[in-house]
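agent> call fold_tool(seq_1)
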Amino acid sequence: MASVCREVVTLQLGHFSNYVGTHWWNLQDAALCYDPDSHSPPSELLSDVLFREGVTLGGQTTYTPRLITLDLKGSLSTLRQEGSLYETGKEVRTFTWEGEVMTHRESPPAKNSFLQDLDRLDEGQLLAEGDFSATQAQESEALSAGGIAMATVNTSLERAQKRYSLEGSVRVWSDFLRVHLHPRSMMVINQYNHDGESNRLEAFGQGEALCRSATVLEELEDRLHFFVEECDYLQGFQVLCDLQDGFSGLGSGVTELLHDAYGGRGIFTWGLAPVRHPDTSPVKELYHLVNSALGLVSLSNHSSLFCPLTLRGGLGRCPAPPTSFPHLQFDSSLWYHSSAVLAAALDTMTVPYRQTQGGGPMWQLSDALAVSGRKVAAAYSALPFPMMLGTSLPDTLSSYGDSLPWRPLSACGELGDGQSFGQSVTLRGIEAQSLVSALAPGTRPSTPLHTCSSGEEVLASFVWRHYPSTPVAVHWISSPCKLTPPFPQIFSPTLGVTGLLEPSPRAPQTAVGSVPVLSSLQSTPALHPCLTDLWRAASAQDPRRLASFLGAGTEQGDLQEALEDLRTLAQCYRGILEPSPLGSSEDESD
């Protein structure tokens, strides 16, 4: 029996969110399979959850993200707002002037090598010299058998085996976007500029006012209706929202709209924050702090589940060093790199509501984690999951002893006290034969993990060992996180092409094509110090320094109320045996 496809509409609000979203959609595109061979194993993930099928004016079938992306004027660079899939190819001009006409054309922005190659693919050109007769023969055979043959970006890039170094040429997110978007997907806010010092969307109140304006609200509702009304079983919305600028206020209005208009649907909101902003200043850092506090409170209030997603070591004024991973070599301050790490983790954490078998809808995951009003979750990931080639999952997990393999992605670390209110753990990219220990008859298991009979049991036993009383949902798929250009090659030489650790270093020009990933989405007491630090930092600011921020649309009373809500929210995550660290005066007001 075929699985019911529960569709999801994705919204990306802000420039860094679009960086993460671009890598996210590139990963989804890399995982798509158009192979008409009926002997191929069925996909473990339903791509129709995220993608929609359409037809161009010329009758060409398209498969585009079910996506609405919002950004500011000047943020698209070479990308056209209406996209390129549905153009007629003819420019219609109507003139009433009969005199001489002089046309001035502005030179378009230069495209990097990756975008130039995508243009060549769209025009039917080859990327590199080589014999492609095998692929052409497969396509001809598929057509003769009545199948559908598509020369995809995936197959073309894989055949060319071309590597790109885009670190110096990526200026905006569209510089590495490899998927076509529907004309209804891209929404540009022309009231504010992406670059420059004037007309910047810097404050929460500006974003709130935008969402109340008739122009923006009507256009957004029109796009929502377009994507929602074609869904048969809409399960909800996933919202990627910049947390530290005015998009936090816009996201507040958008999630409130979704909550009011589509009650009962899941709303998963990911609050994105880069490690560093370009051209920052003390005043801008103050804005980032207060925007984060206001955004976190409001976004979590209107969402089924809210999760900060960042490599920052904290959300306050003096965060700890950024999160690092033992087998990644990347520049955390470079958005092209940091957004790739977050997107790969997000790709794994969202597996449960995209699975063909064994998963569940958004509401099921949110109900399991958002218990007793705790609608803020924390993300952790082992990227890549550090498993040695030829070993088993029990071997790898048991080698950690009392430590954990994952690193924090929500600006809060692990407390190590064994307390958690609920977890969703997902592992991908480990083949079935490596999930359990292959012990010879009569061999004594070295650890309890080696006695488990399934990968899910191994994972659950590992989590319960560290969190003895935690409700946990475990998910596993064998397919790895597939990496194709332009995902940056940020992997250490200790990883082989399949992302597993190998005894010999990988050849310098050999790319890692896929990686296994382990992720954990938790409702955890570790959020208590994180949220408390944010509350303290925002509350400690001199109101006189906030005059310009408040002048952008946020009332002093609303700010104080939000800070009080943030303090109350932080208290919800105190551990079972943990005393309040806020002092007796706060305790008395609880």
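agent> call fold_tool(seq_2)
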Amino acid sequence: MVRRCTCCQKAAKNPTKVALKTWPSPTRVWQRVHVDFAGPLQGIYYLVVVDAFSKWPEMIEMSNISASKTVKALKSLFARYGLPQTIVSDNGTQFTSEQFKAMCDEGGIVHIKTAPYHPQSNGQAERFVDTLKRGIKKLKGEERPSEETLNVVLQAYRTTPNSSLNERTPAEVFLGRKLRTRLSLLVPQQESDEDPLAKARRERMEQQFDRKHGVVKRTFQVGDKVYAKQWKQPQFHWMKGTVMRRIGSVNYEVEIDGRIVRKHANQLRFRDGEGHKEGSDTLKVLLEALAAEDAYTRREVNVEPNPDRAIPNARLPTTSDQTSTSTVPPTQGPPPPTLRRSTRIRRPVQRFDPSPA
């Protein structure tokens, strides 16, 4: 009689639970994702997305949880990580809307909706929501969580070893590498050498660029007077400046009108007429060339006549010529011409080569 009584049946306890049916394990990252909303936390909702394979969580702050805002937030994640194969969600109006259905149809995504009021079916997302709430409460108490607080919780979760991942972190599984955190400073890692293939490719690119643009090596020293290319509405202008410090191989700190600005070597040129310090390469070359020319000129003036250096095809004077000219007083001829050497820098001819370097 009790089993057939309608009133007794309505007042009965919950039935015995059925056998647990777990989700099949995915085979790759971002194959199946679980989505849910956390909140409101001090009036703010958070869209939570968890990858079932790596347990990697994503969290987006949302002041409006309409269907259009939800679809927009998910598309931003899909642009970063690609389209998932399956999405698991509850039966919220955001997930049952036509816009959400259209997004899944366009991306070929299978949308699985869990039973209403049965959060256990979407336990992957529900579990992270619980972890998120407890983490925020530990950091901020009852205050509204800030963006910095959320970032701390996310980083801690992503870099914590997980037993279901064979003691690996979600970051290792999802990104294929360990995330660098402040704890990494306790054990500094030695920098590895550059890959030989990458180094050769980089050097070829530099040589090709230099050959195409006919680059000139130009260095500046501290104290050099330069013109710096400075933006001044509505265009660039050359402003007077002084090199204060060299940063790296091509960057310099230049003082312009009492302000220190950083400039690339391509944005600097020497001030003609004012020059720069004598230590610069260009002035050194000019001074050395002038000194060499002066020394050569003095040597030519003081040189003694050498009969071995007679002019070819010149007629040698005979005895009669010497006798006739002996009575003539010697006259001083014009001074020998000064030999001048060119200081032009000779460069090899660059011929056109259609084949790439």
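agent> summarizing second result for user.
Residues 275-280, 322-326 have pLDDT under 50 and may be disordered. Residues 281-301 form the longest helix (21 residues).
agent> awaiting next instruction.
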